[in-house]
């Protein structure tokens, strides 16, 4: 079982099902980062945000490769979900 108190327990790879779930989460988050980058690229004054998004996307892509190779990653290191901004792809508020 996983204990939140032990940093070694943060490593996530609990068999094939866990790996698939983690791959799906990382892939989905990477797509959100790509969409946010696309939206932010068209706006002025977003230099810092663009760099942050690029760093997050790079981290996600490295994590995806590691998981595909069967390596363990630290879930605490996964970049947080990102807001898409004002782009057309941004979902509206829930009804």
**Structural class, please?**
mainly alpha
Summed up, the helix count is 2
Assign an overall shape: elongated
Helix content: 40-55%
- Strand line-up across the major sheet: 1-2
User: What is the gyration radius calculated from CA atoms?
Assistant: 15 Å
Q: Count all strands and give the number.
A: 2
Profile the largest sheet. 2 strands, antiparallel
Q: Give the uncertain stretches in residue-range form.
A: 1-13, 88-94
N-to-C SSE series?
EHHE
Termini, distance in Å?
38 Å
Oligomeric state of shown chains = single chain
Average residue-wise pLDDT: 79
Per DSSP, what share of the residues sits in E-state strands of 2 or more residues?
A: under 5%
Structure report:
The protein is mainly α. The protein has a domain of 61 residues. Helices cover 52% and strands 4% of the residues. It contains two helices and two strands; from the N terminus they run βααβ. A two-stranded antiparallel ribbon has the order 1-2. It is elongated. The N and C termini lie far apart (38 Å). The N terminus and C terminus are likely disordered.
């Amino acid at each position: 079982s996983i204990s939140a108190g032990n940093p070694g327990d943060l490593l996530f790879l609990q068999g094939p099902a866990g790996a698939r779930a983690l791959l799906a989460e990382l892939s989905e988050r990477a797509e959100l980062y790509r969409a946010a980058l696309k939206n932010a690229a068209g706006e002025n004054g977003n230099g810092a945000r663009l760099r942050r998004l690029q760093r997050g996307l790079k981290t996600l892509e490295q994590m995806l490769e590691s998981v595909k190779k069967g390596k363990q990653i630290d879930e605490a290191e996964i970049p947080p979900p990102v807001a898409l901004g004002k782009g057309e792809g941004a979902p509206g508020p829930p009804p």
